[in-house]
Automatic annotation (TrEMBL):
<protein>
    <recommendedName>
        <fullName>Shikimate kinase</fullName>
        <ecNumber>2.7.1.71</ecNumber>
    </recommendedName>
</protein>
<feature type="binding site">
    <location>
        <begin position="12"/>
        <end position="17"/>
    </location>
    <ligand>
        <name>ATP</name>
    </ligand>
</feature>
<keyword id="KW-0963">Cytoplasm</keyword>
<dbReference type="InterPro" id="IPR000623">
    <property type="entry name" value="Shikimate_kinase/TSH1"/>
</dbReference>
<dbReference type="GO" id="GO:0009073">
    <property type="term" value="P:aromatic amino acid family biosynthetic process"/>
</dbReference>
<dbReference type="GO" id="GO:0008652">
    <property type="term" value="P:amino acid biosynthetic process"/>
</dbReference>
<comment type="function">
    <text>Catalyzes the specific phosphorylation of the 3-hydroxyl group of shikimic acid using ATP as a cosubstrate.</text>
</comment>
<feature type="binding site">
    <location>
        <position position="34"/>
    </location>
    <ligand>
        <name>substrate</name>
    </ligand>
</feature>
<keyword id="KW-0479">Metal-binding</keyword>
<dbReference type="GO" id="GO:0009423">
    <property type="term" value="P:chorismate biosynthetic process"/>
</dbReference>
<dbReference type="InterPro" id="IPR023000">
    <property type="entry name" value="Shikimate_kinase_CS"/>
</dbReference>
<dbReference type="GO" id="GO:0000287">
    <property type="term" value="F:magnesium ion binding"/>
</dbReference>
<feature type="binding site">
    <location>
        <position position="58"/>
    </location>
    <ligand>
        <name>substrate</name>
    </ligand>
</feature>
<dbReference type="InterPro" id="IPR027417">
    <property type="entry name" value="P-loop_NTPase"/>
</dbReference>
<dbReference type="GO" id="GO:0005524">
    <property type="term" value="F:ATP binding"/>
</dbReference>
<keyword id="KW-0460">Magnesium</keyword>
<dbReference type="GO" id="GO:0005829">
    <property type="term" value="C:cytosol"/>
</dbReference>
């Protein structure tokens, strides 16, 4: 089975870290949407936010997501933390399939990223408060987009990689043993 999946979750939830190891272990390309965007814009996301604003970044993010999800074959796609904010992106991801939400609480995330200065939305004032606000808005959107939720609080990164692989293998076996019905019958069809 060739892995083709996407990771969503809060900034600092582990999408890049888990995604890179998952791709390495399964031998498929790893695509980090944030890195791809930084190549496109020729600067860091943080500095782009400062000079061009978040709305412009979201336009480019939507464009990059639409393009990359058209690429055929195996891949592990790590999305940006805010990629689910736009309904069109959520739809693109659901269609792509195998979307995993790496869930972490604001408190866990804070412990992981408190010394990191690269995340534009977590700079300034009170990052813990900001994480709680982001989580309240986004947790329902990650759940709405994802096919699976992986709890990341306790396991190590390598255990999480194994958990994701197991989840995808189980889904694959279930799909192979019970393929969708090919019958022409539709529930609204009254001719039978
Ligand atoms: N399960 C985990 N347990 C402990 N630390 C973790 C775990 N997952 C990630 N980390 C650490 O948390 C930090 C943030 O992880 P990472 O950069 O992968 O998050 P991200 O989801 O890609 O964030 P962003 O959306 O901002 O790109 C890193 O220092 C990483 O090593
Ligand atoms: O949570 C967010 O809105 C963001 C997360 C990062 O992955 C980057 O995509 C960018 O910093 C915005
Ligand atoms: Mg990342």
């Amino acid at each position: 089975m060739q892995i083709r999946c996407a990771l969503v979750g809060m900034p600092g939830s582990g999408k890049s870290t888990v995604g890179r190891q998952l791709a390495h272990r399964t031998g498929v390309p790893f695509i980090d949407l944030d890195h791809r965007l930084e190549k496109m814009i020729g600067t860091t996301i943080r500095s782009f936010f400062e000079t061009e604003g978040e709305a412009r970044f979201r336009d480019l993010e939507a464009q990059a997501l639409a393009e990359v999800t058209q690429q055929p074959g195996g891949m592990v796609l790590s999305t940006g933390g805010g990629a689910v904010l736009r309904a069109e992106n959520r739809e693109v991801l659901r269609q792509f399939g195998n979307v995993l939400y790496l869930r972490a609480s604001p408190e866990e995330i804070y412990k992981r990223v408190k010394h990191d200065k690269t995340r534009p939305l977590l700079q300034g004032g009170n990052p813990m408060e900001k994480l709680r606000e982001l989580y309240a808005v986004r947790d329902p959107l990650y759940r709405e987009t994802a096919h699976y939720v992986i709890e990341t609080g306790r396991p190590s990164v390598s255990t999480l990689v194994s958990m994701v692989m197991m989840q995808l293998e189980m889904a694959h076996s279930a799909a192979v043993s019970a393929p969708p019905s090919t019958s022409a019958y539709q529930p609204s069809d009254t001719s039978h």
